[in-house]
Write a structure and sequence with these properties.
five-stranded antiparallel beta sheet; alpha+beta; homotrimer; 8 strands
Chain lengths: 138, 138, 138
């Protein structure tokens, strides 16, 4: 069994953004040399997500608006978590979008349907943030 | 390490439906010959889900009504994604329900609690749709 | 390839509670002897979750309040599932929070960011409940 680990780092400039990281994850897979196995990709922060969906800007606007409806950022005082922090909404948004994606590896490729792309979802941005890629297989 | 891959295909007739696919996934496991390992089952479409819950028709009605409240199909014009398409709600519903399930394999069986069943959740139906089953182990 | 399986049991006293199970999951990992691999941790009940977030009591209050807004417990009659049961809301809350977490194992440790902790989320408590830990790797 082979195993491979890499952290992908991102410079986050906005409070919320969705970044297509499919190419970086594929590069990890090539580097790993794994042909058959499983790939785990997860946010290492608890106010961020890794998820799989469509790379379409209209949809990303819809997700932003929808998450703000389900778990609004403001007023900050609505959340018990927001004493010294103001990011309770980001913890909830990350919960909706999910922490991780597990992807099949077949014949050395991410075994995806035609529209599947991997995104890093940042909900409490500012500074350097990271994603873990772990691969096991042969 | 053994690995196994299969696509399960479904003919979808309604916009939204929940299909119990546990028996097909178990058949994959038997075919794989894997006794100890992990099984990944994921939708290959980004407007569909694979999730684990109870096979109870009342609950499935509740899920339909609940998802329509969280991410209504209509009016289509409420979503930026709905220019040439009308399925933005399906992308959001899939997000709530999840893309994938990862299941333990123990002694050649899906290692489930008493009520766990695997479902394919279709939210933008019509035509042939598919689910990926990937198994690794020994 | 090594594999390891253990059920963790919890005595649940309230209808809803969030229990930090990170130490028990780490103990499983030590017992397994696996140094590189993947760990699956999932609820074996369909009205409960395993998820990763922050161990902060204000946030846990926010999650309780938020889930009650997204999928209220009462009135019980609002759900078709609630004929002989009263736990439809718990099935929906579990859906939001997720069934499982998959965690990378690196150098014999849970490969976590600084604030990641594993929780068991109970939404229909009372009695003994269990979580499955499955580890594969080397």
């Amino acid at each position: 069994m082979k195993s491979y680990r890499k952290e992908l780092w991102f410079e986050s400039r906005q409070r919320r953004e969705l970044i297509n990281i499919t190419a970086q994850v594929e590069a990890c897979l090539q580097e790993s040399g794994v042909r058959e196995g499983l790939l785990l990709c997860n946010a290492m922060h608890i106010t961020a997500s890794v998820f799989i969906n469509d790379d379409e800007s209209g949809l990303h606007q819809d997700i932003e608006k929808w998450l703000e409806r389900l778990a609004p950022e403001k007023p900050y005082s609505q959340y018990a978590h927001n004493g010294f922090e103001d990011n309770a909404d980001a913890h909830l948004k990350r919960t909706v979008m999910g922490r991780e994606a597990v992807v099949a590896i077949t014949a050395g490729r991410l075994d995806f349907g035609p529209w599947e792309k991997i995104f890093y979802g940042e909900f409490d941005g500012g500074g350097r943030k990271r994603v873990l890629v772990k691969i096991i297989g042969e």
